[in-house]
Amino acid sequence: MSFSELGLVPELLRALEAEGYTQPTPIQGKSIPLVLAGHDLLAAAQTGTGKTAAFTLPILQKLAGTAPRPLPRVLVLVPTRELAAQVCESIRTYGRHLPGFKTAVIFGGVGMNPQIDQFRRGLDIVVATPGRLLDLMNQRVANLSGIETLVLDEADRMLDMGFIHDIRRVVAALPKKRQNLMFSATFNPEIRGLAQTFLKDPVSVDVAPRNTPTELVAQRVHPVDKARKTALIAHLVKEGDWKQVLVFTRTKHGANRLSDQLAREGITTAAIHGNKSQNARTKALAEFKAGDIRVLVATDIAARGIDIDQLPHVINHELPNVPEDYVHRIGRTGRAGCEGEAVSLVSGDEREYLRDIQKLLKREIPSSVVPGFEPGSQPSAAEMAARASQPADRPPPQRQHQGRRPGGNSAGNGGGRNHSAPRGAKPGGGGGGQRHAQGARKPQNRNPQQGASNRPR
After folding, report:
1. Residue 336 near residue 215, CB atoms below 8 Å
2. What pTM was computed for the model?
3. What does the alpha-carbon distance between residue 307 and residue 297 come to, in Å, rounded to a whole number?
4. Distance (Å, rounded) from C-alpha 367 to C-alpha 320?
């Protein structure tokens, strides 16, 4: 099947061809005709399957066939600022040969005046996180009475981050007659309940088994003592000559500490998390995509929206508390038809987390000990010398966000209020991303190479 067979207009086909995209992914092939036909949609797809294009392409085509109107006609709600910027970039990329649609990306962390000006000058498409959008609505700046299409992207993550009440308040301000599109990594009971509230006679599209990572990701586990995890990461990166590695930590403090330690091993690295400014995060991500940084250390929330077509390696420095988050993490690789590798470093106190993950996957992840890093073995002289040269770790700062709305800025996600600066089509510029170019914490209580691709994201 080709994109032309889906009924897309020549202007969109030109943009897709210019990006090197030739064939739709399964989620695109199934969703685009349904959206063009006006159906409400409940779609489940793994990360990296092209869901952003699955709704942006038909939305752009529908707008192209209508006359300009004074109020926004499309609202896309997303959980994080990174994802908001990614969606806005896709809209501008695919719509560049269409009439000049006005698109704005709205989230916190910067002053409101530029965003207020965008609404006053008129917009066609608004991509927003719920908190800042509500701020603008409360100031009677964001008039959403003309919305014809509502998209809830990564709805499962928005529920996890506590945005359900914000979402309900936004939806209450929309016209009752509209098209609703909901995209989620899973069809869990909470998502189905949300769908019953917002969607009208939706068509369900499920292109992958529930909670199953892509088949293109090779997974493996390395048992190792907690104190030697950083040294093992440095060993894997250097011995394997890995050029682009995304490493997950459970906490923001852990991300900073690991980034500092890897820098002392001579590995260029940066850390991104919710306490970083948007300029710093954007700059670090741009340098990572460009290959100027070998290792990007990230928390789960900060990694949402990281979209690199050919990211080859993901490492779990610590296993996540929630098994489903493991699927989201390793889904950063193995995207757009490219193979990837996900490595998890598992210490003795994480065995229960590993069992829960394998139970979710309904399979055992291959495990092997890296020679020289056997659990219980002594660190090498080089490791001991490196540890001796490191300053004592500082304790993580006390959290000071009591009383704020769930998902607020200090919690580290991008969807609450007072979040990051809007950005244009391409990341870059401004701030520092804790970049280094020099030569663990116990699990908490359990709660829940850049390159071209032939498929759009």
Report:
1. no
2. 0.61
3. 15
4. 18
Beta strands per DSSP E along 46-123: 74-77, 103-106
Nearest CA-CA partner of 325 in 298, 288, 296, 293: 298
Is pLDDT of 184 > 70?
yes
Q: What is the pLDDT of residues 66-87, one digit of tens each?
A: 877 889 999 999 988 888 988 9
The radius of gyration computed from the CA coordinates of the chain, to the nearest angstrom, equals: 22
Alpha-carbon distance of 203 to 41, in angstroms, equals 5
Q: What is the pLDDT of residues 419-456, one digit of tens each?
A: 333 333 333 333 444 445 444 344 444 443 334 345 56
List strand residue ranges (DSSP E) for 293-405, in order.
295-298, 313-316, 340-346
Q: What is the pLDDT of residue 68?
A: 77
Dist CA 88 CA 80 (whole Å): 12
Does residue 98 register a pLDDT over 70?
A: yes
Q: Provide, rounded to the nearest whole percent, the portion of the chain with pLDDT above 90.
A: 50
Residue 190 contacts by C-beta under 8 Å, 6 or more apart in sequence? 156, 159
Q: Give me the sheet containing 74-77, strands edge to edge.
A: 103-106, 125-128, 74-77, 149-152, 179-184, 41-44, 203-206
Q: Are 433 and 270 in contact, with CB atoms under 8 Å apart?
A: yes
pLDDT per residue as tens digits for the range 53-66: 999 999 999 998 78
Q: Which domains does the chain have, with CATH numbers?
A: 3-206 (3.40.50.300), 217-394+407-411 (3.40.50.300)
Alpha-carbon distances, residue 32 vs 37, 96, 179 (angstroms): 9, 19, 13
277, 110 contact by CB (below 8 A): no
Handedness of CA 240, 242, 248, 253 (dihedral sign): positive
Structure tokens at 343: 């490595």
